[in-house]
Amino acid sequence: MTRWLPMIICSMVVMVAPLWLWRPVFSSYFLKLDDFVYLSRARSAAMLGHHLLTPHNGHLTPLFLVQTHVFARLAGSIEGLPAMMGWAAYAGLAATMAGIGHVVARQTGRAEWGLAAMAGVGLSSVPGPALLWYSASQALLTGAVMMAMLAALEAWSARGWPVALAMGFLLAIAAPFCWSAGYTAGLAGAAYLWAENRPRARLAAALIALGSTLAAAFAWYVASDAIRDSTRLAQLSLTDLMTVRRILDHTDQAAWEKLVFNNLGLDAPTTAGQAVMLSIAALVGWRIHRSRAETSSSRGFWNPLTAAGAVIVISNYALVFSTRGRALGYEHLRHLGWYDAIPQLGAVLFAAGVWAGPRLDAWHCPISPPSRKALSGVIALMVLLFVMQSPRARRLVVEYDGLAARVQRLEDQTPSEPADWAGRAGRQRAALAALDRIEHDQAQAPTGRAELVRQSTHWNVPGAPGELPGYSLADLIDAGAEPSSRPPGRH
To answer: Is there a contact between 486 and 51 (Cβ–Cβ < 8 Å)?
Structure first.
């Protein structure tokens, strides 16, 4: 245990470091827009049961609603929701960091590489928007489930445990019900196993891909109309095949802008042509490096980490640009940073796999405590990431406040300086405390759901959305009554 103590301490530092990187936000966490929709659907057990299979913006997210219900009950009051939802978002990030660290460490046999992978996720500004806005933290929950799936598949591959493969299959099914990006979990798991280059692993890869397929079929059966309307799939035609090139171009742009430049702390918009030239240059450089290498492996460049990482990046961006991109276009999606959270996981896995290279003798080996030199390298990486990412993290918080400024900017709710945030958060908590008093009065002398809905039109809660189909701020009150409206998209 003493040999592992420095590793344990370093792991704890890595896990809490994001709190310091995003400290202005966590000191004054603020609920906004879709947060109120999810909370109104999940705060009470009755509302959760009624809305469990209700889609929102084309996403069928029963597991995210269950998470919302658990943390809302832990908050103990409506006033306590903002702070607790902030911790819920951070819990998703922490679980994702732990998952990717475990996968990389177990796959390579190097504990320090696992720590470096955790730092590459937690101390990057790329997943920031998914952390700053609770509704966007669906991406973090999905990422945590996907990393747990890969951890289960690694356990099966290394030890042959059938229960581990069954767990991977169930997690592949679960990922899409945290957020729609989870539909790519089966592809990532299949690529991870396929790279093992063994017949048994390829059969297991087909099973994992089947898990996501079953989840997609169930979601389509439950909420096909809502999904079609949100993604405009109903308008697809043969002419849309011509958009494949555009999807590839946008995926290439996003990979360079978000996963390369943003991870260097830079905001550098590109054109499609520039992204293509950068990719060609990278491929040429890689081929030159490979040709000069003294040794090579029969498995070459690809291994489970690089395969899963590449598939996560490509499939997630392709999914976004083939659905949301048809309506918003790349210029708007560039600023929706929560779509980059899961590709960031793929980028870190890919980088770890490239760094491991052909050293296959260490794969699936027991993990030994890292040396002082190795831990010093991880600490140096953490310091480097923090210094490079802090300026961009501040820009994200100040300019966008977790939302996309060019799509929607709420002038009365989006502050420009940290000094404003505490006041804004305080006004929201005061308004939510008033709802606590209404809830207490309802428990003493119920007035009926219809009366609550009528009254809610006069409630002024900063950050709450206006009128939305199937939503009422009155549903945030746990009065033990029936929901105020029929949820849309239910069949």
So the answer is: no
